[in-house]
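in:
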């Protein structure tokens, strides 16, 4: 695994973000949150792998962003985390409930998740 693998993670992450946008258009709001979470999870793993040649075997967005802060030492990440802690926890919860519980999300939450994903992409791209 190497450069090809990290690019694969990035490509898949961006595909999940596109899926979230399609889901929103279809009013499939539960899947919007799931796909946004998958986008973030894979994009952060891509960045960690790119720097270290491996990534933590976790699905926790909180753990991943904390790892990113350690690896990249970026103050912008700390502020981003502090400003968006609630949505990160919500997305983590959405990932878990999408697999095991019949949890529903509405249009407003889905819209906020998509807006957050776009902001997150801007921040994460700055690390590349």
């Amino acid at each position: 695994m190497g450069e090809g693998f990290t690019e694969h993670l990035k490509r898949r992450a961006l595909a999940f973000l596109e899926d979230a946008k399609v889901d929103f258009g279809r009013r499939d709001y539960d899947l919007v949150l799931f796909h946004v979470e998958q986008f973030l999870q894979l994009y952060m793993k891509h960045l960690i792998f790119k720097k270290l040649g491996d990534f933590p075997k976790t699905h926790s967005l909180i753990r991943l962003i904390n790892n990113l802060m350690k690896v990249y030492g970026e103050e912008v990440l700390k502020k981003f985390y502090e400003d968006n802690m609630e949505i990160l926890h919500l997305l983590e919860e959405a990932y878990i409930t999408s697999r095991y519980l019949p949890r529903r999300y509405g249009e407003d939450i889905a819209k906020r998740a998509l807006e957050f994903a776009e902001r997150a992409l801007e921040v994460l791209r700055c690390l590349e």
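note: The chain has one domain: 3-125.
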